[in-house]
Write a structure and sequence with these properties.
The chain is an alpha/beta fold and 252 residues long. It is 38% helix and 15% strand.
């Protein structure tokens, strides 16, 4: 596996968001909103860097606390589609991660994309389908997710649109109908944290077993860098947190 960007994201709790390359404006809005809200809760968003729902998922998540992972069906030097080369670079520059099982010079082939979909579902705790036709790459990913015993979440769609066929069919088969990010988060509750003193609570409440940097802590608090570093130092001395590659994590 080839990796560019923040490989620590591969250890984060993740949700895959997938769907059609030709979504409606409603589908684009929903994909971005779900991705942003889940990412702000520390959930990494996984998708395939394709046009449409994939792109919206990456865009919605890339600046959030959870950030995003893009799984390519080609090598890094032949990003497909070419229209997403800027997004590919933005993901890496904003702290995200791009992975591929193909060497950097490998050009895309149609048969590579269905195969890489097993990685998208494999990295995630569950898969969210926004809009998709029944016979599609999204359907292949959903089948992989089923084989991998991953939960499938679906946004219901208009019955008159063929891009609602897959989501509505999976809902009938028992997939989880969702209308908000909270519906997904209920399936994956955070492990309770131990209590800490009031002096550290503002930082500790946004930390988890996933590494977080000083810059990220500053983004989510009103603290100065000096104050953050001082608190982190004492929290580390007291054994509440520990420094790791990529930032700080809570100690069991």
């Amino acid at each position: 596996m080839y990796v560019q960007g923040n490989k620590e994201l591969l250890n984060k709790r993740a949700i895959a968001i997938i769907g059609t390359r030709k979504p409606s404006e409603y589908g684009k809005k929903v994909a971005k909103e779900f991705a942003n809200e889940l990412s702000e809760k520390g959930i990494c968003i996984v998708s395939g860097l394709a046009e449409g729902i994939d792109s919206c998922a990456h865009l919605g998540a890339k600046c959030g606390k959870g950030n995003t992972i893009a799984v390519l069906g080609s090598g890094f030097n032949h990003v497909y589609p070419a229209s997403n080369i800027k997004l590919y670079k933005d993901i890496i520059e904003s702290g995200g991660c791009v992975i591929s099982e193909y060497g950097p010079e490998e050009r895309c082939k149609s048969e590579y994309f269905p195969v890489r979909n097993r990685i998208i579902s494999g990295l995630a705790m569950g898969v969210l389908i926004v809009e998709a036709k029944f016979k599609s790459g999204t359907g292949i990913t959903a089948r992989y997710a089923t084989e991998q015993n991953k939960e499938i979440f679906c946004v219901p769609g208009e019955i008159t649109k063929n891009t609602s066929d897959l989501t509505n069919e999976y809902i009938k088969r028992g997939a989880v109908l969702v209308t908000s990010a909270e519906d997904i988060l209920e399936y994956y509750p955070e492990e309770p944290k131990k209590k800490v003193g009031e002096d550290y609570e503002d930082i500790y409440k946004i930390m988890s077993k996933d590494p977080i940097t000083v810059d990220e802590i500053k983004r989510y608090t009103d603290l100065s860098v000096e104050s953050i570093n001082e608190k982190l130092l004492f929290m580390e001395i007291e054994g509440i947190i520990k420094g790791v590659n990529g930032g700080y994590v809570v100690v069991d």
